[in-house]
Amino acid sequence: MSTAPPISADRVQKFIEDLEAQKKIVSKCTELFTTLTNHFTSLQNSLSQKSQSLDAKFLSLSSKFSQTLDSLSQRESSLPDRESAAAAHIETLKEAAFAEFKDPKGSAQLSDTLKSLARRMDSAGLVKFIVSKRKESVPLRAEISVALSEAVDPHRLVLEAFEDFVSQKSGKTLGLTDKRWACGMLVHALFPESSWKEKKGKGPEFSRNIGERAAEVVDRWKGQLDGEKEGLTPGEAVMFLHMVVGFELKERFDEGFLRKLVLDFSSRRDMAKLAAALGFDDKMGDIIDELVKNGKEIEAVYFARAAGLTERFPPVSLLKSYQQNSKKNATTILKNGNFSAAATEESKNVELNSIKAIIKCVEDHKLESEFSTDLLRKRATQLEKVKSDRKKSSAAAGKPQNKRSHSAGSARGSGPPAFRPTKAAKFSNVYPPFNRRNPAPSAQQSPAARFSAQYNYVGQNVFEAPTAPYASAYGVTHSQSPAAVTQQHYVHPVENLGVSSFPTSGAYGGQTSYVAYDYGSAAPSCSNPLRVPNSLDSVT
C-alpha cells in the first residue's frame, strides 16, 4: 500500500498567490471590457444624436429653401406692382418738386418745410431746421416720419445726417448736443419701434451700398466713443443701438459690448425693446438677474415685460423688493449724515423719487389691481408739501430786512425825519434877487406853531416842503412851491453860523447845508446881509 507524498505549505502558498494573480487579471479585464462597452455606447449615442441633428437641420434647410423659393417667386411676381407703385411715387414727388419750384417762397408751415427739405435730400438743412424747431418737439416728431416718406431715398438722407454728425464730433464742433438730438429724431422716425419686430424674417429695405456706408459710419462712431474721457451719454447710447438695429449691424460688433451698453443704460425707456430687437431673447433672463442684483428692479420689470418673462420675474414682487431697498437706502443716508438737515433732505428726495418711479411703472404696465398705490400717493403728497414749505421758508429767510428808520413826525418811530437830499437847482447868479428867494408873505401860522420840534435840513433846496406823510404830521398841506412857505425874516446874517462847522457861503439856489435849528428858541438868520425891522424879531 503506497502512501501519498506530503503537501508542503510552500506549495499551497504559491498556489494561492497564483490564484490571486489570476483574479486580478480577470478583474482588470472586466474593467477594460466595461470601459470599452461604455465608450462604444457613448459613441453610438453621439452618432445617433448627430444623425438626428443632421436630419433636423436637413429638414430645416429644406423648409427654408422652399420658403426662400416661395419668397423669391412672390417678390418676382410683385415686381410689376412695386415698379408701378415706385413710378407713381416718383411722379408724385416730381409734381411736388415742380410745384415747389414754381412757388419759391414756399409755405411757412412745419410739415411743408420738412417735406421740401426731404424732397431736396438736403440732410444738413433738415438737421438745421429740426434744431431750430426744438421747442416744438411734439408736432415735429409726428411730421418727420411723414416728411421722410417724401424723400427719394430716406435711408441715405438719414445716413448723410449721421455722417455729418460723426465727422463734426471728431472735430469738437460746437452745437453737437442739438445735432445729436436732431439725428436721434431722424433715426426714430426712420426705424420706429413697430418696424423692429417686422424686420424678423424679411430682407433689408435699403441697398447694399447704403448698408456698407452705415457700417463704416457706425464703426467710426464706436471708435470715437471708446476714446471719449467723459463717457457715453444715455441718449447717444440709445441712438447708437438704434442705428445698429435699424441697419442690421449686430454681427459687426462684439456681443459683450452691446450687452454692456444695454446694462449700463437700462433706465432708458427704449432700452428693453432694443435689447429684444438685438436678439438677446435667450439671454434676457441673465440680463434681468444682473439688473436685480444691481438694485434696478424697476428696469427689470420693463425688461421682463418686453421679453415675455413675467412668470419667471413677477412684476409685483420686483416692485416690493425695490420699495424695501429704497427705504433701507433712505434710512442709511439719515444715519450716515447724523440726522442733519442736509441728510434729511437727501433722504426725503430719495424716497420721493423711488415712489414716483414705482407709481410710473405701475401705470405703464396696468398693475393697479395687483399693486395698490394709494398709500404711496399720499406719502408722495406729504413729501411734496414738506419740500414746498422748506423752499418757501428758505426763500423768506434769504430776503434782506428793511432797516429804514422812521421819522419823529410819523406815528411809527421817533427821532428826526431822514429825508433824502435833493439836487440843488442851478442858477447863473449865486445870489438871486431877494424877491425870488423870499416871496411875499402869506397869512399862515407862525413857524413856532407849525414846527414845534427840532428839524434837520440836510442839503434841502429852497426850503423844500416835506412829503405828504410828514406834512400831515405837522398840520400843513404839502406844497412844492416856495410861495406856500411863510416868508421868514432873520436877524443875523449867515456868516454868524460858522461855529456849526457847516459851509457859511452860498445862496438858497445852490447846494446848501443847514445846522439843526430850533425854531422855537430863536429866529433864524438869512443869507442876505440886509436886516429886516426889529418888530419881526419877536415872531416866535
Automatic annotation (TrEMBL):
Q: Which Pfam families match?
A: Frigida
Write out the ranges of the annotated region (Disordered): 383-422
Claim: Isomerase is one of the keywords in the record = no
Sequence ranges of Low complexity compositional bias = 407-417
Keywords from the named record: Developmental protein, Differentiation, Flowering
Family of this protein: Belongs to the Frigida family.
For this entry, the protein name equals FRIGIDA-like protein
